[in-house]
Amino acid sequence: MTDMEVLAPVLRSFTEPPALESITVGEPRAGEVRVRMVAAGVCHNCLAVEQGLYPDMPLPMILGDEGADVVDAVGPGCALLPGDHVTLSWAPSCKKCLMCAKHRPALREDASPFYMNDGTSRYSGGDEPVMHFGSSTYSPYVVVAENMAVRITSRVPLDQINESSEALAGKELRGVILFSEDGA
Fold it and tell me: What is the CATH T-level fold of the domain 4-177, as seen in this structure?
């Protein structure tokens, strides 16, 4: 495995839309997986960040907090395998804290949606780290903690999983981004 260069929409200002930039996606480390995006949902949270409704968020950042994907590479100690179909959760459960025991992992106090579990980012633009926004599904390749990737059957059409899961969850879906086989 090696780092990879991809084009991804990077949000650098709350007054301008994200612009496509060449970024480096780092290798997955222990307990992490890299996935190739097939479809990403555009939800109200990402639009709110882009519009500057949360001006305290660190920039630059890659938005996107849900998607349907195929595992591309795995770090040491992972049960998922390359080729597994997954959907991503932006708020995985640690299965230990009070909020996770109450099935409310989005309220975990020890999790940051901007960094990996070790406090670093797997994205960079030049020498500058680029922050995660949950799973950063607007990038054609993403690295996430393995517990953010939920294995699904390969019989489910990945370009439809996001729309269906959002409707079932009652979330407001604003659109779906579909990626080509080459990640563009």
Answer: Quinone Oxidoreductase; Chain A, domain 1 (3.90.180)
* Measured distance CA(52)–CA(57) in Å, rounded: 9
- For the entire predicted model, the pTM comes to 0.81
Rounded-to-integer distance, Cα 69 and Cα 56, Å: 30
Interacting residues of 165 by C-beta distance below 8 A, sequence separation 6+: 66, 87
Phi and psi at residue 150, in whole multiples of 5°? -100, 115
**Cα 10 to Cα 56, 64, 118, distances in angstroms:** 17, 11, 22
pLDDT 10s digits, 67-118: 888 999 999 999 999 999 998 877 777 777 888 788 777 777 666 677 777 8
- Each domain of the chain, given as residue ranges in start order, spans 4-177
Half-sphere exposure of 55 (CA within 13 A, CB side): 2
Measured CA to CA, the distance from residue 126 to residue 118 in angstroms comes to 21
Backbone angles phi, psi at 157, to 5 degrees: -65, 115
Cβ 15 vs Cβ 52: under 8 Å: yes
Q: Phi, psi at residue 109, to the nearest 5°? A: -85, -20
Region for residue 170 given its phi and psi (left: phi exceeds 0; alpha: psi -120 to 50; beta: otherwise): left
Task: Tally DSSP H helices, then E strands, for the chain.
Answer: 3, 11
